[in-house]
Amino acid sequence: MNAIESAERRLADRVPFAARVMIVHMQSAWFAELIDLSEGGCAALRPAGWELEAETLVRLFFYDGDGPAVVVPARVARIDGERMGFEYHEPQNVPPTRA
């Protein structure tokens, strides 16, 4: 994906969304509070103990009540103080849903 496509994905309509997401990288995992969602990514509050940097590849686990989580591959797009943003590898429904 080139820089223009990446910038266009960040401009997608963002929807405020209060929920928790699990962020998994290799053998580490964190729960974080979501701030908003879009088709191209999401923003969350930075959890305690966060140790990853921008550009790190992660898997995001979105939960919708009981049942299996929706797993979305993503990358850490930015970290701004208490907030962090993720860019999905592929566009998703808002909120992400099981196929």
Structural class: mainly beta
Provide the gyration radius in Å: 13 Å
CATH-derived topology = Thrombin, subunit H
What is the CATH architecture term? Beta Barrel
Can you tell me the CATH superfamily? predicted glycosyltransferase like domains
What is the H/E order?
HEEEEEEE
Tell me roughly what share of residues is in helical segments. Answer: under 10%
Mean pLDDT: 87
- Beta strand %: over 45%
How many discrete structural domains? Answer: 1
In the predicted model, the low-confidence regions spanning at least 5 consecutive residues are none
Q: How many beta-strand runs?
A: 7
Distance between the amino and carboxyl termini: 23 Å
The 3D shape can be described as globular
Number of separate helices: 1
* Spatial strand sequence of the major β-sheet: 2-3-4-7-6-5
Largest sheet: 6 strands, antiparallel, barrel
The CATH top-level class label? Mainly Beta
Any key phrases for this structure?
99 residues; mainly beta; Thrombin, subunit H; 1 helix
What does this structure look like?
There is one protein chain. The protein has one domain (3-88): Thrombin, subunit H, CATH 2.40.10. A six-stranded antiparallel beta barrel has the order 2-3-4-7-6-5. It has one helix spanning 3-10, and strands spanning 15-16, 20-25, 28-37, 41-45, 57-62, 70-80, 83-88. The chain is built from one helix and seven strands. The chain has 99 residues and is mostly beta strands.
